[in-house]
Amino acid sequence: MSVWFASESGLARVVSAGEFAHRWVPIRTPGGVQYAPATDGVCSAMELRSPRAPMPIKSFCFPPKELVASYSSQAETATATAVGTVSATLVVGARPCELRALQYLDRVFGNPPTEDPFYHEHRAAQVVVSVDCVEPHDTCFCNLVDGMPYASSGFDVNLTPINGGYVVEAGSEAGHALVTEAQDALSPASEAQLGERDRVRAGAVKRLNTNNAGLRPAHRPSEALGAAEDGDVWDRVGRGCVECGACTQICPTCHCFFLIDRGAAPGVLERLRAWDSCMWSGYSRMAGAPGMKPNPRSRFRTRFANRYLHKYVWSPQQWELLGCVGCGRCTEACPGQIDIRRVVREVSA
Asked: What is the pTM of this model?
């Protein structure tokens, strides 16, 4: 497989290649690294060497709020919105953990016979340029969940930041098309540049091992957490939780949603779906007569435990994949300072 080198200006040429209605790149703002629509000025200021952006890439293929149907108030059945109208989108800056998250969501939303046409449409229109982690965030722990801070698959184009530019590798037909169009701004990667790529990757692994020293669970979480499914330990480790749902909203693999109908115009109703959270007291609340268990997780302990059990116990059973990719966003976002690594370690012990 061919590997190239791109200078900073050469990379802007790669990001500008292809026909896309939308291009998103990470930039530095007063509030931190955030995704922004790409322009010539923005492309030259891409922030690819800092820790990952807080916003999960799932937002581009599983939006926080999305219209899924519209219907007349007089109709007996709803008519789904047309599939096939999503525009081609380029997303630059996804980290290796997010590529694993997309692999997980592809499994969840693409599993027949319940595949999600809306998710599939977004994914089919999406081209992803990933970037190796040079400076993992203090809360990152991909090395504890069988991940690495650099990508080996799942990308269209992958970048490794090195001195003076980036090592560029195409991983799909769409990625090869981007690289081919920007060929005039690339050069074959030299042995020295490939060696520097390997050293950069080894350095990131070393930092992750240092950051997470002493936080590896003593027992396999899929077994230990399952044994503690309804134990008192969840009350203790969840004591700081304020049930805000920030951890699930910022997670790249959480995929619960609810549906809501509302009026759009006189005689016209629309159905939206929006992200749900197992941390909220109304999670999974169902309509029905009294005594019909309207909320299957009425106790906080069961809702708090659900998030961990789903990621570490039930997801491997159902999808053969962990539901946690070690991005650490939930720890970073939690106002109660609950660290997912410490919870898993304590419960596993």
From this structure: 0.91
